[in-house]
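Team,

Forwarding the record for the chain on the shared tracking sheet. I've put the sequence and predicted structure together so nobody has to dig through attachments.
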Amino acid sequence: MTNHLKQKINQTMKKLFIAVLLVAAIGTSAFANPTTVNYKILNSFGTDFKGAENVSWKINKDFVKASFTYDETQIDAFYNIDGEFIGTSKQFELNKLPKKGLETITKKYPYPPYKLIESIELTYADGDKGYFISFEKNNETLVLQVSTSGEVSVFQKTVK
């Protein structure tokens, strides 16, 4: 497999993971409680997050999400149905963004009128990270994507 094809597959998986996370962040109504979780997923989770507490599982036809506390931090871990680890998400403080990203956001989306709703740090299975920041302004929700280098782009904009 060529490097270009590997990169394209990796980017597609990351985009899919981001979409799933945003759905999960908005609400888990698309998930149903599983009766059982795949042994491979349980084994992988037990190895990756030994000592996790208060674990709850949600599943849909494509992904399994484990929500838990680990080292006093609330984390969501995502696995595909085949049991492969996709990545994790957790809340973080906006001021922990890369400096360039924080400066851009503060200038372009000041409070008020923009009200911070949520800041999520994504860590993919390959170790790459990304940040998603959601704001509300009047009847609009804005989700920004921030790279580790501090580049800011609009990921999603919705009007209520």
